[in-house]
Amino acid sequence: MMIPLELIHGQTTSPASKEIRQYPLDDRTVYQLGIGVNAVTTLTFPGPIMALEAANVTADPKVPAQMLMAYKPGRPFFSVRALAQNAVGQVNVVWNDKTYVLKFAAGNDALSSVRFYVEESQDALAKSKSPQGASQLLSLLDRAKAYPLIKQQHPELVPQLDCSNPGNVIRYKDFDVVVNEVYRFDPEDALVFRLLFLNRSEAETAYVPKGLAMRVGPQIYPFAITDADGVLPPGQKNSKEEVLPSVTVIYAAVVGRPDGGRNNLAVKNTFNILVPRAKAAASTSRP
Fold it and tell me: Can you list the alpha helix ranges (DSSP code H) found in 94-185?
């Protein structure tokens, strides 16, 4: 299916690299991390680190060790690199009165960036239902809409986001949904979708905006907010009596998991969009 170029933003994709990882903080877990010899690995915590205790890792180049660390007290991050092939080391990080064990090993699976985050609970879901939370959800849509233009004209003003342009099409009886763009706002644990609804029929098509949802594998994620109005304009016939589909652009956001906590969904997943038809509210249309 051909989609008009003016409906598609410029390429904003920032491919998720295998060298970048994110892990939930758990003081009962030992984190095994790959480190490079000719590259640095930066590890970031949610807030200022209280203390570091290391084995076979030194911050002083004059002290013999297999790994070199760079850290300034009070900062939420530090960096490590291996000084020899097959080097191993360990750093215990004290943050928020808990100790987290990080074990390093030099090898081909070296990481460039590791970010640790606090896994949220049901409290985060409750906040999203408050007036303040609703305003924050709406701002996610606005930020996604503005991101491509601001990044192009003023790249220094915007943070780097994980983005993708999947382009996969979900076909329904008389309309299609194209997953045009996906943005991840990691601090909010949110994915914002730019969706193209193409109505192939000559009739107006109604659907239920509050019932829109996204599916990844077996898991269904209801959209926390959308700018959908529930109506798809009819397609129009051209001079050859062919129906040209109408195109409606919709933004929608998924925040966290339905049962609370973080979803940590990457933009490279295969996303399926579920659309309930207004004239058949009892049954949800699914591809």
Answer: 122-128, 131-153
Q: What is the DSSP letter of 9?
A: -
In the three-class reduction of DSSP (H, G, I as helix; E, B as strand; rest coil), residue 278 is classed as helix
Angstrom distance (rounded) from CA 211 to CA 157:
35
Judging by beta carbons within 10 Å of its beta carbon (0-12, 13-18, 19+), is residue 238 exposed, middle or buried? Answer: exposed
Domains of the chain: 5-14+122-280 (2.60.40), 26-117 (2.60.40)
Which pLDDT does position 9 carry in this prediction?
A: 44
CB 188 within 8 A of CB 249: no
Q: pLDDT tens digits, residue range 213-257?
A: 999 999 999 999 999 999 999 999 888 888 899 999 999 999 998
pLDDT score of 1 more than 50: no
Query: Quick one: which of 41, 35, 26 has its CA closest to 95?
Result: 26
Average pLDDT over residues 261-281: 86
CA dist., res. 180 & res. 157, Å (int)? 24
For the sheet containing 272-274, what is the strand order? 219-222, 213-216, 272-274
pLDDT tens-digit readout, 50-79: 999 999 999 999 999 999 999 999 899 999
**Could you tell me which residues are beta bridge partners of residue 191?**
184, 254
Is the distance from CB of 121 to CB of 114 less than 8 angstroms?
A: no
Residues whose CB falls within 8 Å of the CB of residue 213, separated by 6 or more in sequence, listed in order: 220, 221, 222, 223, 273, 274
Give residues with Cβ within 8 angstroms of 24, minimum separation 6. Answer: 116, 117, 118, 119, 262, 264
Structure tokens at 64: 């013999």
Residues 128/215, Cβ–Cβ less than 8 Å: no
